[in-house]
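Researcher: Good morning. I'm working through a list of sequences from a screen, and I'd like to move beyond sequence-only analysis. For each chain I'm collecting a predicted structure so we can compare shapes side by side. This is the next one on the list. No need for commentary yet; just the structure.
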Amino acid sequence: MENIKIIGEPQRPRKSFSAWLRERMGQSVSVHEMGMDITEEAQKPKRSFSAWIEKTAGRPLRLRDKIIGVLLIIAFLSAFYIALDANKYRAMVHVVDGEGRVGVNPTTEALDFGDLSRGTSAVRRVNIANGTPIPMYIIIVETGRLADIVDISKNYFTLAPRAEEKIEFITYVPASAQVDANYTGRMYLFKIPTFGL
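Model: Good morning. Structure tokens for this chain:
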């Protein structure tokens, strides 16, 4: 058999950091002589949020600052939860020509008052249940064109623990309403825990 010769660069042995540093510096200086400690550099803590706050404030955080920060975070998360937990209903009514005409849509997913002629009204009901052991403060917010012609039977009230309440949304189409117009909007039902306060 022939001898096979591999041409290429021979593989160099790996150097330690201190050997590499000596080679680069052209001197035989140890890492510790230069005032560098590799283990200390590797173990430096990463910047934290509290360190950034302290740097921004120009002083260390006091206990009072930390308590205020925690309360603000709790308030933000509570508001976020309340907004996500809100019941949202699309609401609509279609104005038709004629007198005393009412066409109701039986859907339960939206507050659809159906087709109403001018001078007529319709009622939709929503059942609110509080299945928690904490009282809830109920707020209903109306938006859109429909908010001008809808009345709510009960708003801004406290719902007792494990209780139910029926709320009526009553719409009345005024005589000045334009025929074939659509009144649309949204109803947001917020349930805010009161913790007995």
